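Supplementary Methods, section 5.1.

A reviewer requested that the exact input to the structure prediction be made available. We therefore reproduce it here, unchanged from the version used in the analyses.
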Amino acid sequence: MKKIITILAMTLVVSTSFASIEPETVSSQALNTFSSEFVGATDATWTISKDFYQVTFTLDGQQMFAYYNKSGEFLAISQNISSVELPNSLKKSLKKVMGDRWITDLFEITNNDQTSWYVTIESADQKVVLKSDNGGKWRMFQTIEKI
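The structure derived from this sequence is encoded token-by-token as follows.
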């Protein structure tokens, strides 16, 4: 399951475009599962990738992203959040590692087993993506040098 979350996170972090070799439609099971799990969701837009479906939707004024495998089983949900929505321990430890960098992206991914947070902090010459699983310490996930 951690591998799936990592794949989903990378998709959000690097904004990978989704492509399909041949036209495909979202399975009826995925559509039904989504409808029953997110009653009241609006503006649902489905994207099909090689390994999973992503649906972008609005629920209670918040844009969210849900992921389903090709069998239509729920994998995870993610949403962008602000730093004030982080657990207190993560807020404090993030302040320590930020230095003179600023936050450019912060999101939370939740599946049945865990919640993970990903934050992108930037300086003039570098982007650093940090990850925390279940509120544990931040760890380096990815470093990107700016050109």
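The chain has two domains: 2-79, 83-145. These observations are discussed further in the main text.
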